[in-house]
Amino acid sequence: MANIKSAKKRIEVAKVRTERNKAIKSKVKTAVKKVDAAIAANDKDAAADALVAATKEIDKAFVAPAREVLTDSTEALIKMLKDAHAKQRGKHGVLVKQNIEKDLERIEAGLSVSAPDRYIPLVYKFPATLFDYLSEGVVVSSEFIKQKEVLKNLQSQQNEDLSMLFEEGILFAGCEKFSLDLTEYISILDEGTTVLTDSFIRSMNDLHVRTLADFGAVSLSHWGGDLETLLEDLRDYADRKFSVAVLCGTERAAHALTTDLLNHNINAAFSKEARISPGTVFVLEGSLSTGFELPLGKVAVISKGRSNVSEKKKKK
What is the DSSP string of 93-104? Predict the structure, then answer.
């Protein structure tokens, strides 16, 4: 057991974080189940509301990188390290033993080991990944081909780092795997419920694509601020029963635009979040790099352009 103040404090902090993570995970699962239930009931309005609520809970969730390795007890950790120490052989084994002996000395003195995360593969036979927190959810993977390139480069860099740490005797057999490799990642996407999004139809030999959907997204130019131009576009969308969101910068500007649209008989409402409601225009604060239109889903987002020209201060 921990016998110094700082070690005891770390254990208490770990317990608090564990309970917090359990609560967050429970909220996310509950929110996602409500979305699934609304979809199963074919209630589009309820599904849209539930999706907004679930997104908020997911945005709040945070899975921190490993900072501490938690074991059943200090004695259990000492036994694991001694067992690993006894298995080391050869010149490399001498370096590994020296590093393990230093950590054993620190533990027995009531101190924490240096870089404890390197013992994750030793302590946890099946280390959890982000996907273990999303076991009942849907994974949305954007531009899978680019992901593969990035992951290959990361894996190559990680292999170089691991090789260096092996030479220094910091890592050893059984303590060399710290993340999913590309093959495992692809297997999770293929076996789970995954939505792949891409700009073009590509050949994906790694994955078994079950359904292909073309959303036909159309990029829209910025709205320059002219009310008549906006009214013309919004009336056209209203005739086609589109749900429209207009982003116009500040909250003050959004309230003012809402009033203008209502005065011109546009079914508009100021909102803190976009909703899907055919024939309705939701005016929000904020902006995007560009607007877009999804004809299949009858959804359009119009964003006011940002001015890149700053006004010069007049000399007094």
Answer: HHHHHHHHHHHH
Residues sharing a CB contact under 8 Å with residue 313, sequence separation 6 or more, in sequence order: none
| Boundary-marking domain end, from 27, 43, 62 | 62
Domain range holding 296? 218-303
CA atoms within 13 A on the CB side of 176: 16
Alpha carbon separation from 37 to 31, 33, 59 (Å, rounded)? 10, 6, 21
Distance between CA atoms of residues 35 and 50, nearest Å: 5
Total of domains in the chain = 2
Q: How far apart are CA 231 and CA 238, in angstroms?
A: 10
Q: At 314, is the pLDDT very low, low, confident or very high (cuts 50, 70, 90)? A: very low
Paired strand residues for 303: 247
Residue of 230 and 121 predicted with greater confidence: 230
Whether 74 is covered by a domain: the verdict is: no
Q: Is the pTM for the entire model greater than 0.70?
A: no
- For residues 229 and 247, what is the distance between their CA atoms, to the nearest angstrom? 15
pLDDT beyond 70 at 11: no
